[in-house]
From TrEMBL:
A zinc finger (C3H1-type) spans 53-80. Residues 1-10, 26-40 have a biased composition (Pro residues). This is C3H1-type domain-containing protein. It comes from the Eukaryota. Residues 53-80 form the C3H1-type domain. The lineage of its organism: Eukaryota, Fungi, Dikarya, Ascomycota, Pezizomycotina.
Amino acid sequence: MPPPPPPLPSPSSSGDEATSSSPEPEAGPAPPPTPPPTPPGDVSDENQSRDSATNTPNCPFLLQGHCPSGQACLFVHDEFVAWLQERQELTLPEIDTPPAQSQDTTPQVAPLIETNGAAVGAATGAAVGAAAVPAAVPAAVPAYGAAAIATYGAAARAVREAAAIVAAEAAAVAAARAAAEAAKANPPYVRRPQIVGSTCRSVAVSWPKPGRVAILGYGSLDMAKDECSKFNGHSIPAGQRKKVCGHEVAAILSSAARPAEAPQTTRVSHQVAVFFGPSVQTTDEKLRRSIRKNLTPTPRHVRMGEYSATEGETIAAVRSLLAAIAPLELFQVQQDSTKTRLEATAWFPDLVAALEASRLDKTCLSFCAEAELSVRVHNINDTCSFRCHKRR
């Protein structure tokens, strides 16, 4: 007759034996513990069992990636982190802190981002169980990673995402530093050394300053020609020039305007354009009144024209003419309000370009007929005589 089966243990003793006797861990990593079902009973007993560090089960939600309760969760998170570290799913290298006297005081490239008043680096270390941020990356973790760690606990997914973002930022900073060092070592341009004391490549350019224009209308062509000759000094006695308002002027005979373009009062008159020099410091209204009062014969009409050109326009035009020959190394303009001419000095790469620029002498600007250029090559002195003769 077979022996009777052993008696079943009581419910109270089975829980103690289950908690006291645990199987020995195997060689491989143990599976994550699952929380046992909570038996119905007194609420005080349930709270007392959860408060105990030995009886509180691990959080089952962390196995899925996050815990919805966060820090308010009644289950244990630290043991689950230890289990993840055993499986090598959560590995953060510890920082190697140098001695106090040899610490690098160089400021970090990325600033330390703070979330809810707490540093992200400290929040990361506290969440993963005093694990430090690697020293190879800047001490700045994105706010997204810190918020995820603070909300969901030490979830492996949140930690891995934060570490990946930090690594990407560190790579971008390293690439920017490498590009800056390369640009500093090999600049994109090389400055050409200037030869001190040498003027063998320079030319001196001057042209008259632009002035104002007055259009005088006469009743006949012969009268207009006669007045134009008097203004330019071609009348008898030779050399005497007729002045306007006490100033010598230059005059040209304007072509007759077509009826559709000329004003009503000038369709039957012949025009003479009178150019005033820049030394005439007066208004257009005063010039018009003075011409009508003092000029004999009195023209039928007097019309003050606009400036033929401004100083800035003439300077830009002269520089363009010189730069069309060869690239200019330097172009300087000496502006003096007391003079009636503008003076400039241009430096060319070689003497050949400077000699080519001297051919612009007595050239007028296309939009300013009275601006005749005077271009002179430098005088060879003792400083550059050897270099100039050698290049020739």
